[in-house]
Amino acid sequence: MADRSLESTPKVHRLEKNVLTVPNGIALAAAAMAPVIAVVLNAPAAGPVAGAALPLSFLLAFIACLLVGNSVVQFARKLPSAGSFYTFNSYGLGKAAGFFTGWLFWIGYAILAPGLFTALGAFAHDYVLGVFHVEVSWWIFSLIGMAIVFALSIRSIKASVQVDLTLLIIEVVVFLILAVVAIVKGSGNSAVVFTPAASPTGFSGVGLGVVFGILSFIGFDAAATLGEETKDPKRNVPLAVGGALIIVGVFYVFVMYALTAGYGLIHPANMKAFLNDANPIVTLAHSYTPWLEQIIDLCAIGGIFSCLLAIHNTTIRIIFSMGRDKVLPAVLGRVHPRWFSPYTAIYAQTLFTLIVGLATGFWLGPGATGAYGFTGSIGTVAIVIVYMLCNIALIRYFFNLPERNWFVHIVVPILGVIALAYPLWSVAQPGQPYPYNLVPYIAIAWIVLGIIVYFYFRTQAPEKLAAVGAFLAEENLSEDRLMLATTHHAEGFNEGSSAHGGEA
């Protein structure tokens, strides 16, 4: 009877199992956070408010993101899936929350790629112009970079993460060399940078600096989307998420301290120069390691490329999961028969990146204060909302389970929600300069569109909502258990409650 039932069960679309390891997951997550780009772009942005307390702001941001990371780790141990938060929140909060998580998570990551696409072209253009005195349009470099990203992602996820890992090691080593030299030779070594007294406005300045710190950690969860392709995902995906967070967090705090020490930010005159400096990291390299100056520029370009590659691979797995569940068009849930890549999702995300990237690049400019900053702000609002929902979902999912731990499953996620509230408001609040004043309205419009789609499905195709987030890593669920989990998950939708028993 069981065999006949399994024969009648429609064949599901699966990514290739057991091809990735913990270092691969760490590489994807760390590349998505883009530590080098965060240091180059976010540190100067936080400087006017945090002042010499930059290391403290990034340390507090690190702690806040560890609180959120706890929720990802706890869920990944139970529900490994390419859907990541889309799957987690559908089990923790029910189908409606799962749908809206996917809706926000999809656009949150998808919209980051066009900004990175433009920034890659802008940085490459500036480098070629400055070194070779040749004028080449930014969009040419962007198209070349996107072509390489497309080829890597469609051919092999393993090749993609290996490229990410290689570039990441080179970038981090170069920046750590600069940081060590700056600390040894710098005139601003002082423990006061870890106190609010180092900020020109005290606690409020440190708090605003934390916003930029948290933005620098966006992407730490990327490894969770590899749940179906990683060996022993219940063990290795949490290790990858936690490992990436810790490695990048320590890197941020150390390099931020080196920046304050090397620049001497505890001295008012140096702080004024820092605030007027378009690229403090390059200035630091010019002062202490001139032989690294061009390498720093190349690392910035490599960092943007590796981030684009990581964000692209993360986004297509979210699109694939939603297409597989038929919440998005079912064609997006197809897997390449030879390379096991979600090739139709790759086509869709590549086209989206090209159209939005070129449009915003020519509209706002391709640089950090143009398309990159604008699309990044939209993506940050959507992703932070998903992070907050995940913390709430963790509380509900584990609340009545025997393995519930009051501190890990209740207290920590509550603190995570609180830690994210202020950064969310800071990015989305009205009254910001153009075009950032459009960000909250774009986010609201996307949510309203999601509500319309949700109620359309609820009335016209409820079976699609019943399948939301049902797929888990095949290694952890045999086909008959998978069918039972999917059935139980569907019953949870009909009952209006979450399916806590989905992970058999």
Describe this protein with a few key phrases.
504 residues; mainly alpha; Amino acid/polyamine transporter I; 20 helices; disordered C terminus
What does it look like?
By secondary structure, the protein is mostly helical. It has one domain: Amino acid/polyamine transporter I (Up-down Bundle), CATH 1.20.1740.10. It is built from 20 helices and no strands. The chain has helices spanning 2-8, 22-33, 35-50, 54-78, 85-93, 95-110, 112-132, 138-155, 157-185, 203-217, 233-263, 268-275, 280-288, 293-324, 343-364, 368-399, 406-428, 439-460, 462-466, 479-495. Helix 2 packs across helix 14 and helix 15 packs across helix 16. The longest helix is centred in the middle third of the chain and has 32 residues, at 293-324. The chain is globular. Residues 1-12 and 473-504 have low confidence and may be disordered.
Over all CA atoms, what is the radius of gyration?
Answer: 22 Å
Q: What's the CATH superfamily, by name?
A: Amino acid/polyamine transporter I
- At CATH's second level, what is the architecture? Up-down Bundle
Number of helices: 20
Helix/strand-derived category reads: mainly alpha
Number of domains: 1
In the CATH hierarchy, the third-tier topology is known as Amino acid/polyamine transporter I
Instruction: Work out the strand percent.
Output: under 5%
SSE arrangement:
Layout: H1 2-8, H2 22-33, H3 35-50, H4 54-78, H5 85-93, H6 95-110, H7 112-132, H8 138-155, H9 157-185, H10 203-217, H11 233-263, H12 268-275, H13 280-288, H14 293-324, H15 343-364, H16 368-399, H17 406-428, H18 439-460, H19 462-466, H20 479-495
Helix pairs in contact: 2-9, 2-11, 2-14, 3-10, 3-14, 4-10, 4-11, 4-16, 4-17, 5-6, 5-16, 6-14, 6-16, 6-18, 7-8, 7-14, 7-15, 7-16, 8-14, 8-15, 9-11, 9-14, 10-17, 14-15, 15-16, 16-17, 16-18
